[in-house]
Design a protein that fits this description.
Layout lengths: L1 H21 L1 H12 L3 H4 L1 H17 L3 H4 L1 H22 L2 H26 L6 H29 L13 H17 L6 H7 L4 H12 L2 H30 L5 H7 L1 H17 L5 H19 L20 H4 L3 H5 L2 H11 L6 H30 L1 H6 L2 H30 L1
Length: 419
């Protein structure tokens, strides 16, 4: 029961930030409508989100064990509760920047602590890998709910209608609920606190930086960067792609983008079972090949779309349903590589490693979104999404190298144990 309550709290925390962070694609679309913002300018919202994640993780991750996992998560949930409840009163582009900056700070704190807390409630590497996938799949459930929640508040007949900001009253209340649940949940952090005794903050920060110099960690960092670059560039711009390329109405564009979240959630749920039986490398290489096939098959179908606006689900073209299925194949990659790297490190190094995961994931996300936004604006949505094939190819090479270095590390560890 003790571990179950902690897991429920972790899932709810992730759910809250899933909606907040991944509303960026919807908000990018809405600020273009409401405030006459260009695609390039709107893409900066991704930077406010991801750079705040990266900076916070870089500066705070090594200190999380000292601050305490529970206290860190409470700070994050308290911050976003306040900002969400204040945003409907601001209703401007500056307010959305403030929201994503605070959500980024909060998520950085939550993700580092959630990843670190998983070790406290699992017994072995397989359980760790499975819970990581289920947790990340629930994150996608949050994103899915967010699409429908925002879609409900959008008014297609009035593009400049700002009533959709009221959705943040609901999100603020949800964050407050997560805060109260966590506040009433006991988390035993004594083993981590004991490992940190006698270490200075400077030493902790230096140890985190030294992790980057480890070949296995370095290759992992690039893998995480390129994966999130792929995922976020598609996720953030899919609502705009649906509207500008497929000619769907604003509410339909947002709601149809939810298929991507469903695909990722389902993919991670299934991966939680498959990865217990099949080596992670074979699963992930198959997934990358399948993702590339989805791009090559579906994007050409968007060239035959008529210019007639679509307001009914019955008139939505088939490609709007097919392209988001790429998420089914991208889904297992991120939680799998995160679990592999964390499982190869001692528990007291998990906060620092989690911090590096969050930093480079955030940098990958903002890089992908900004590049996609500018290519989208200059050359169109088809070209922007075709270019996802480049980082997909890079990922194949990185995963092969990652597996090789993991095997080398295991061999060295086994030899050390024997001697």
């Amino acid at each position: 029961m003790y571990k179950t309550r902690i897991k429920i709290s972790l899932f709810l925390n992730y759910f809250v930030f899933a909606i907040l962070l991944n509303s960026v694609g919807t908000v990018i679309l809405q600020v273009q409508n409401n405030f006459d913002i260009s695609k390039g300018s709107a893409s900066t919202l991704e930077a406010f989100k991801d750079l705040s994640i990266a900076i916070t993780s870089f500066l705070i991750a090594s200190q999380v064990a000292k601050i305490g996992y529970k206290r860190t998560m409470l700070i994050a949930l308290g911050l976003v509760s306040v900002v969400c409840l204040a945003l409907p009163e601001l209703r401007n582009f500056t307010g959305t920047k403030l929201l994503f900056a605070s959500a980024g700070i909060g998520f950085a704190l939550v993700k580092v602590t959630v990843y670190s807390t998983i070790t406290l409630v699992t017994n072995d590497k397989k359980e760790h890998l499975s819970l990581m996938n289920f947790l990340e799949s629930f994150f996608m459930v949050g994103i899915l709910c967010g699409y429908f929640l925002f879609g409900y508040f959008v008014d297609d007949s009035h593009p400049r209608y700002t009533g959709w900001f009221n959705v943040y009253y609901i999100l603020g209340g949800l964050a407050l609920l997560a805060f109260l649940l966590l506040l009433s949940t006991r988390i035993d952090e004594s083993s981590i606190q004991n490992a940190e005794k006698g270490k200075s903050s400077t030493e902790d920060f230096a140890n985190m930086l030294r992790l980057i110099l480890t070949p296995l960690v370095l290759v992992f960092i690039f893998s995480a960067f390129f994966y999130v670059l792929i995922e976020q560039s598609i996720m953030s711009w899919l609502p705009t792609f649906n509207k500008d390329v497929l000619k769907l109405s604003t509410s339909l564009s947002i709601q149809m983008a939810s298929i991507l979240s469903v695909s990722i959630a389902l993919g991670r749920f299934l991966a939680g079972m498959v990865l217990k039986k099949i080596d992670w490398l074979y699963v992930l290489l198959f997934c990358l090949a399948a993702a590339a096939a989805v791009v090559l098959i579906t994007v050409p179908l968007t060239k035959n779309i008529s210019g007639i606006p679509i307001n009914s689900l019955a008139d939505v073209p088939l490609v709007a349903f097919l392209f988001p299925l790429i998420g089914l194949f991208l889904a297992p990659i991120y939680p799998a590589i995160n679990s592999v790297i964390l499982s190869n490190l001692p528990a007291h190094k998990h906060p620092a490693m989690s911090g590096l995961i969050v930093v480079f994931s955030a940098l990958g996300g903002t890089t992908g979104s900004i590049i996609t936004g500018h290519i989208f604006g200059a050359y169109g949505g088809q070209t922007a999404f075709y270019l996802s094939l480049v980082p997909i190819s890079v990922m194949v090479v990185l995963l092969l190298l990652f597996k090789k270095l993991q095997s080398v590390k295991k061999t060295i560890s086994d030899q050390s144990t024997l001697t």
